[in-house]
Amino acid sequence: MKNLDCNCLLVKEQAPIDLDNRLEGIALTFEQGLERTKPYTIGLVVGGFAAPIVGFNAGWITTTTASAQAAETPRVDALTGICSSAAGRMATARSTGLATLEGYDNRAKRDERVAVIMTDIQVPADILDKVSTSCSRSLS
Predict the structure, then answer these.
(1) Does any domain span residue 10?
(2) Are 111 and 133 in contact (CB under 8 A)?
(3) Pseudo-torsion of CA 39, 53, 61, 65, nearest 10°?
(4) pTM given for the model
(5) Total structural domains within the chain
(6) pLDDT tens, 75-120?
């Protein structure tokens, strides 16, 4: 080589890189890949199985039926209160106490009184039976 009077970098030729030999240490065998992914696979399977169980039991997930019942219960309770107070007013108007409707033996009288009251109250058909039953129980 000639000696140059400049501050140039001398580029030295390098041997070509053999990628096949370098990747041999990095490449995984199928068994090694399975061994490394085993904890993640187990976690995915156990989590997929446990998440719905925990979610439903903790109340984080609700079904359509549970939501419908949760919305229906306050309606039934409110209409039951109206029915019970109407029964009290009816008993006062007839000068009979609600004590005459208490007990198992007076069940027929109680159901008749509730039926009369329910004709005066506008109750949706989908909860009519529940309101009638609940009102009859509240009078017993």
Answers:
(1) no
(2) no
(3) 150
(4) 0.47
(5) 1
(6) 888 888 888 788 777 776 666 666 566 655 667 777 777 777 777 7
